[in-house]
Hints:
This protein has 341 residues and is α/β, with parallel strands linked by helices. Helix content is 43%, strand content 16%. The protein has a seven-stranded parallel beta sheet, with helices on both faces. A two-stranded parallel sheet has the order 7-10. Strands 8-13 form a two-stranded parallel sheet.
Amino acid sequence: MKLLVTGGAGFIGSNFIYYMQKTHPDYEIVNLDLLTYAGNPDSLKEAEQSPNYRFVHGDIADSALVTDLFEKERFDTVVNFAAESHVDRAVLNPSVFVRTNVLGTQVLLDAAKTYGVKRYHQVSTDEVYGDLPLDRPDLFFTETSPLHTSSPYSAAKAGADLLVLAYHRTFGLPVTISRCSNNYGPYQFPEKLIPLMILRALKDEPLPVYGTGENIRDWLYVEDHCIAIDMILQKGTVGEIYNIGGHNEKTNLHVVKTILETLNKPEALISFVTDRPGHDRRYAIDPAKISAELGWMPTVAFENGIRKTIRWYVEHPDWWQRILTGEYSRYIETMYGKRLS
Ligand code: NAD
Ligand code: TYD
C-alpha cells in the first residue's frame, strides 16, 4: 500500500502519519507539504526513522510537481490534509485560502483521476455547515445539513468538498470525505485556542478570550480523528461523507478555565477582547452515521485529553520555543496587539 499524505507536517497530518506507522508499519507513506508557517519538520523527527516514510517539499497547487510525483510514485491512496486552516488568518488574507484549499484540492483530484488512485480522501471540517444557535442544544450537524459557511476558511473548504463530490459523480473517482469537529492534542500550532492558551498561561501572559467566551466547540482528541480516517479508508463507502465528532461540547471559557486550573494559574489572566468578525456560535456533530456504519466512537474524554495535551506542551518546550519568534510574534502582534492594550 502506497499512501500520499498531504499537509503531513501540520498538526493533524503529523499525528496521522504516526498513527498509520504504528497501525500499518508496512505502508509506504509519502508526505507532500509546502512547509508554510504551520508546517514543522520537527514534528516528524521520529517518523523519519522509518524506511517506509519519505518527505517531499512542495505545493499541492503546483500541477507540474504534483503530476510528476503521481507519475513516479503511483499512489494507491491519497489523504488530503494540506490546507490553510486558521479562521483568524482567513480574515487577514482570504486569497491564499482559496488557492490552497480549493485550487490545491482540484490539482490533487486531477492527478488522482489521471493515475487511477483507488481512494482519494478529503479531510474536511464541520465548519462547512456554518454554526448552530446557542439556545438550541438539541440541534446537531448531520451529513445532510446544508452547507452554510461563515468564513473564507470554511467557504474554501466547502468549495473543495463540492469539487471532490463532483469528481466522483462526473469521473467516477473513488472518493470519501470526513468532516470533523475541533481537534486538540500534540503538535498543534499555537495560534489555535488550546495551545495558544496553554503557552500564554505558562508565560503568565493574558489569555485573549473573544467576546464573552460563550461560543461552543465540540472537541475531539486528535488520535480519535486519525482512527476515524483510517476506518473510513478501510471500511467506508465510496462517494460518502462521514461526520466525526464526539459530543464533547464546551464553551471557550470552560476550556480556558480548565487550562488555568490544570496549570495552577489564576483566572485573572483571562482578558475578554473584541470578538472575531463573523464568529460562529456553536459547532456540534451528530456522529450517528460513522458510529452505526463503521463502529467508530471517540475513545478519549475531554477531561483526559486536555490533561494529556497540557502535559505534552509542558514537556516539549523544544518543539514550541522555536516557533515563538519571527513570523509568529508578528502574527500575535497583528491579531492581539491592539485588543490587549
Ligand atoms: P495545520 O495548519 O496545522 O497544517 C496544515 C499543513 O498543510 C501544514 O503542514 C502546511 O505546511 C501544509 N500546507 C499548507 N498549504 C500547503 C500547500 N499549498 N501545499 C502543501 N502543503 C501545504 O492544519 P491542521 O489543523 O492539521 O488541519 C489539517 C486538515 O484538517 C485541514 O484540511 C483542516 O481544514 C482540517 N480540519 C482541521 C481541524 C482542526 O481542529 N485543526 C478540524 C477539522 C478539520
Ligand atoms: P480556533 O482554535 O481558532 O478554532 P475555530 O475557530 O476553527 O473553531 O478557535 C476556537 C474557539 O476559540 C473559537 O470560538 C474562537 C475562540 N478563540 C478565542 O476566544 N481566543 C483566541 O485567541 C482564539 C485563537 C480563539
